[in-house]
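[step 3/7] fold_predict: job queued, chain A
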Amino acid sequence: FKIKKMYEVKVAGFFVEKALDAAMERTRARRGIIIVNDPRSGDILAVASRPSYDNRYFSQYESSCFRNLAFEMVFEPGSTVKPLVMAAALEEKVVNLNNQFFCSGSIMVHNHRVRDIKAHGAQTLEDIIINSCNVGIIEIARKIQENKLYAYLKDFGLGEASGIGMPGEERGLLRPPKEWSLLSLGAIPIGQEMMVTPLQLLKALSALANKGILMKPRLVSRIVGVGGKVVEEFPVTPLKRVVSEKTAAMVLGMMEKVVEKGTGKRAFIEGYRIAGKTGTGQKVDTSGRYAPGKFYSSFVGFFPLPEPRFGILVMLDEPQGEYYGGDIAAPVFREIALNIIDYAGIISKDAEVRVF
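[step 4/7] structure written:
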């Protein structure tokens, strides 16, 4: 499978721009971002960021419109981090697929009660990801040594520049354990007390879709000068193995169930195997407290399984009305995925792509 890169970017970009504009209008979100990548190579196939601007009327826009939110904004990722925590626990062998945890609807962390969306009852590891169970993932995180959990999240690329080499890129925030509070183990596993860029988040989860190997993001494969001479090449660059292929496959399988019957059902496409995770992160206001009614709604998904060739991140900032990532971001993923399936000729069930 070989992408004709510039044509791919152009067409995927059209799909993405159209889908994001429709989502922004539908949800009345303050900002929005979509990134499409190839998790196997780290190639960035398309990016759309809103608000944006029209080159013809450059001087009429505020400076904030010129930022590419893919790597220049940071946010608390919420539940999209849970697969990374699960992968760390499985890799460290502190849990196994036979384990169950009980969710009563909340859990005490030090003197603070962390609430779940509901009481889920008995939860297997798979159930915890399918239902995005806060209680379950916090219980699992407690079994991992703090320095180990931090090291895994760091190895997934959180808290550091993605390597894409763009000016203005944010590093995000992932504090070392010595700076954690007594509440941190109730916050970090559910995507709080950390900040990521959309690109960092897609890069991290792409490692699970790429058999446990973290890839350096790549915008272009080469720069060609006058006369067709190659000025500079940018090779595909594996950065490190974060978890084993077995662990990555187990967590990706859990994420597939999220789309089949969990919080990501609205990303489901009949006949295609898709893995994904929803996220609904609370926004912090200027006082450092969570702002009532303000959320980051996201969905990150990969297809076609078992060896995904496309990853899509959708994030909407401060949507009005519905705000759960599974309700408003997952359908945007589905729209883009359907366009890519049609364009790339991905065959139902067999999930094989024609060579262009």
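[step 5/7] annotate
The CA atoms of residues 282 and 292 lie 8 Å apart.
The chain has one domain: 5-344.
exit 0
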